[in-house]
Amino acid sequence: MSGLLGQSLLVLRKDLLIEWRTRARLNALIFFAIATLLLFSFALGPDTVMMRKHAAGYLWLGLLFSSMLSLGESFRIESENLAMDGLKLIPVDPRAIFLGKTMGNTLLLWLLSLVLLPVTIALFDVTVTLGWPTLVGIFLVGSMAISAPGTVYAAIASHARARDVLLPLLLFPILIPALLAVVKATHLVFEGDLMDQLKSWMRLLGCFAIIYWTLGFLLFPKVLEDD
Amino acid sequence: MSLTFHEVKKSFDGVPVLQGFSAEVPLQGLTFVVGRSGSGKSVLCRAAVGLLRLDAGEIALDGGRVDTLPERALQRTREQVPYLVQSPALLDWLTLAQNVALPGGTAAEVEKNLARVGLSALGDKRPAEVGPGVRKRAAIARALMLRPRFLLLDEPTTGLDREAAAQVNATLAELRAQGLGALVVSHDFAAAQTFADTVLEVHRGKKGYHGPAKAFRGLTPLGVE
To answer: B103 vs A89: CB contact, 8 Å cut-off?
Structure first.
């Protein structure tokens, strides 16, 4: 396992294996996200036009709220038995820890979005107008955009006593541009893109993801320093 | 060539643990660090590789400060002076050989380092299939892959039966014979007197006895400075 990529894949594999063995995080995420979507649909009432119009927003809010559980948990497992120290002492490059963790969080969020899609279709009566590959691609880039800053802030918040409150407080304001772009893009896939706006929103979302993956990669060693 | 602690201070939640600890540990031979529980023995090792930041004082490796290094630069220190925590921290889905190979290196190096700790025949076993003593020695072999100048070991024989502990101590003695020294945090006074060249006592957060193992007569009684 030499090289940054090899170390990143090691961290990713470790996280996925822990997740697979317990399945605690994935199960909790799925039920929490479905419950959130159900609550949104009940809150809107039987107005199907309104439900269709706002389906993308509710889908991504459900994913965003669920990601708070997922991101916090990804660092809680490292604080048990000083596992993070074990990684540092192998020694694993801190940037590889960032990449591995972020890839793991992205994958989990992406899978969750795929699970939530049929639920959204059933609850909000939406149709996928622009095709499934486009939607799956948006889910992937959206998951990447949430995961990169989410991993950095989850690492920072993991040292705080009120970490469960601190993480959303730090992360939500940062994510506003990404949330706006991904909701608009998803809405266009549901409702159709008559004005050819999808590319612009995807460009914004892609730029956001690239910027935060780069920043996280560069700054994560400093975050670990403050352990 | 030494690891130097100078007036090192560290508190946890206002409770002072190290209170101006100073010592110079040569990077050769076996130095056993002894002291009562909570005296700060492990804190010394953790601070030496940057897992803890000091409240005051300096730690230097060959004259170069290590306590102020940024995280990425600390990687080099952790390669030169690997720190083995109490738990062997092996990845359970990999074989011992694959665990040893984690820091990088060729298959021949893996085989050589497994042989150095007496585990040539067990490379294809997974951690769950072997005893705790073998896991500790596998962790030592993994550290050897970094081509270290010195090892820091935190209670390497705690929790092991007498035979497994003897094998770990024998491995350390063998490595010393090959020219690789270590600083060993230990509660095992018998092992300290048998295997150590030097004993360094941590007493109430400061240096107590520091000298040849043969002359070490036991811990400084509480109340005696």
So the answer is: no
